[in-house]
Design a protein that fits this description.
Distance between the termini: 28 Å
Number of domains: 1
Order of helices and strands: HEHEHHEHHEHEEHEHEHEH
Strand content: 5-15%
CATH superfamily: Aldolase class I
Number of strands: 9
Structural class: alpha/beta
CATH topology: TIM Barrel
Radius of gyration: 17 Å
CATH architecture: Alpha-Beta Barrel
CATH class: Alpha Beta
Length: 255
């Protein structure tokens, strides 16, 4: 099922979907698998599998450290694809590759897209690849029914938002604030206005990420956004208390 159709079907039953995040190979693939098992218990709808990269420019310190340690542990792109294939067979949620363009470039766009499709991925999030330079990758992805997810930022002009919104497939990732991942975001009128701006420029569902970390955040996004994107806070819960910590965090967030 195409990603947008899957999301629409889920949205018919749930007022707000949830996308979570793991860094492949950190702390280990077996721990990644246990984290996904916990996420499945809480009926998450999407999971980003981050392919580690040495310079994750959109990420905050916690994810930068996780990427570096995964690389030091020997995590390779082929391992990430193998893990994605394993997860796609086991879990009901959709999986997206999240990473940086160097990873795609090194393998070659065509080979990367073929591997992603073969592994059961639904799309990809490559935050450092501008729309103007993504034409061939987007064409290759469309041919394999994969959706490149575009990021919309509060610093974008209305013209730029309209350009990105028109090109979007699957859903759009609305970046809740300036900066990198990991810091707390104010759930306020300014963010509400930005989400409304995003809705005006696209027909696909709107996900909101960067700083979503509490039940209050989820309550704020319900009725405004379609997808709450939770990354750093879930990683922090795992690092602090492992499986029990992640389960407690998701229970508080979504219970």
């Amino acid at each position: 099922m195409a990603l947008e159709s899957y999301l629409r079907e889920r949205l018919a039953r749930k007022p707000l979907l949830v996308m979570t995040h793991v860094v492949c190979g950190y702390p280990s693939f077996e721990e990644n698998l246990r984290a996904l098992e916990v996420m499945a218990e809480f009926d998450v709808d999407l999971v980003e599998l981050q392919f580690p990269f040495s310079e994750p420019s959109a990420d905050g310190p916690r994810f930068v450290r996780a990427n570096q340690l995964a690389i030091e542990h020997g995590t390779h792109t082929r391992d990430c694809f193998a893990f994605m294939a394993r997860a796609a067979q086991r879990f009901p949620f959709k999986l997206l590759m999240m990473g940086y363009y160097n990873t795609v470039f090194k393998m070659g766009e065509a080979a990367f897209i073929e591997q992603l499709a073969a592994a059961g991925g639904a799309g990809l999030i490559v935050p450092d690849l501008p729309l103007e330079e993504s034409g061939e990758l987007r064409r290759l992805a469309a041919a394999r029914d994969l959706d490149p997810i575009l990021l919309l930022a509060p610093t974008n002009t209305e013209a730029r938002l309209a350009q990105l919104g028109a090109a979007a497939r699957g859903f759009v990732y609305a970046v809740a604030r300036k900066g990198v991942t990991g810091s707390k975001t104010a759930m306020d009128a300014e963010l509400s206005d930005f989400i409304a701006r995003c809705r005006r420029v696209t027909q696909v569902p709107v996900g909101v990420g960067f700083g979503v970390s509490s039940r209050e955040d989820i309550d704020f996004l319900r009725g405004r956004a379609d997808i709450a994107i939770i990354g750093t806070a879930a990683l922090a819960a795992w690092e602090e208390r492992g499986e029990a910590g992640l389960r407690a965090f998701l229970a508080e967030l979504l219970g």
